[in-house]
Amino acid sequence: MPGQGFKPRFDLLREVAKDLRYLLARGYHKEPAINFLSNRWQLSSLEREILKRAIFSEKEAKTRREKRLKPHLLRGKILYVDGFNCLTTIRSALKGDPVFLADDGFLRDAGCVARKFSLTEPEDTGLEILISALKKLPIKEVVIFLDKPVSKSGELASTLRELLAEVGLKGRVELVPSSDRALEGLCPVASSDTVVLDRAGAAFDLAAHALKSCGFSFSSLASHHGTKFEDGEIKGNDDTTDDPA
Predict the structure, then answer these.
(1) Which of 1, 83, 169, 219 could bond to 100 as cystine, CB 3.0-4.6 Å?
(2) What is the DSSP code string of 153-196?
(3) Is residue 244 in some structural domain?
(4) Is residue 3 one of the residues assigned to a domain?
(5) b/e string for 198-207 if b means 16 or more Cβ within 10 A?
(6) In this structure, is residue 157 part of a structural domain?
(7) What is the pLDDT of residues 188-200, one digit of tens each?
(8) pTM listed for this prediction
(9) What's the pLDDT tens digit per position in 127-179?
């Protein structure tokens, strides 16, 4: 896991992000650009990972931002959820690991939490936060996909089914070989995975929405390339910001 026990320097990362966007806009490949800037600024492995997950070209960021849905636009729809993706971000926030708003407007974690569950704190709390947020959305039904190869996925699926039944939310939990592939062609999706988002027609940032409902605020690296997003709800120069969803 990258950078365990190290606090990322978000003020510095915002400055480095400006240089990275400059290089991306001029056609430089992302990985070598990050390596160059990381060496120059002596960034930790955790800070490198945050740049990788948060900063995108203007075209990438704009395309994904245009797919984002507000909660009221989910009314009467079936929401298809990338289960481990959303839960991992929620668990990261609960553990105090870095979560941050990226250029494309989606909340991401830094990959510090392993994608396995033991169904103990903060896992149980994370599940409750997720289900509570889903219950309050105006959706018709929810379908949660879990990657079957992940350890304890079967046990997690059973627990999620019980929680859905307890709150009276219509939905199902499916174990699949790959959530990314299962979500392909479905809409709207709930995920911050770039592969899923790039394939989707519309997306909802469920992790951000769920955490905001519990009072969490997030560090932001989002600049939106000089533009305000959704009536200025995300402000790229602020240290923290509310959930744009």
Answers:
(1) 219
(2) HHHHHHHHHHHHHHHT--EEEEEES-HHHHHTT-SSEE---HHH
(3) no
(4) no
(5) ebbeebbbbb
(6) yes
(7) 999 999 999 999 9
(8) 0.87
(9) 999 999 999 999 999 999 999 999 889 999 999 999 999 999 999 999 999 99
Count of structural domains, the chain: 1
Of the pLDDT bands very low, low, confident and very high (cuts 50, 70, 90), residue 88 is very high
Report whether 56 contacts 13 (CB < 8 A): no
- Residue 205 to residues 22, 46, 50, 155: CA-CA distances in angstroms? 27, 23, 18, 25
Q: What is the length of the chain?
A: 245
Residue 128 has phi, psi (to 5 degrees) of: -65, -40
**171: β partners:** 142
Instruction: Tell me which residue range forms the domain holding 142.
Output: 67-99+110-216
Q: Domain containing 153 — which CATH number?
A: 3.40.50.1010
Distances (CA, A) of 49 to 13, 46, 150, 152, 222: 11, 5, 22, 26, 15
SS3 category, 101: strand
Give a yes or no: residue 131 inside a domain.
Answer: yes
Q: Taking CA 140 as the corner, what is the angle to CA 134 and CA 142, rounded to the nearest 5 degrees?
A: 50
How far is it, in rounded angstroms, from Cα 11 to Cα 20? 15
Backbone angles phi, psi at 101, to 5 degrees: -85, 130
Helices (H), the chain: 10-25, 30-41, 45-54, 58-65, 83-95, 123-136, 153-167, 179-183, 194-199, 206-212
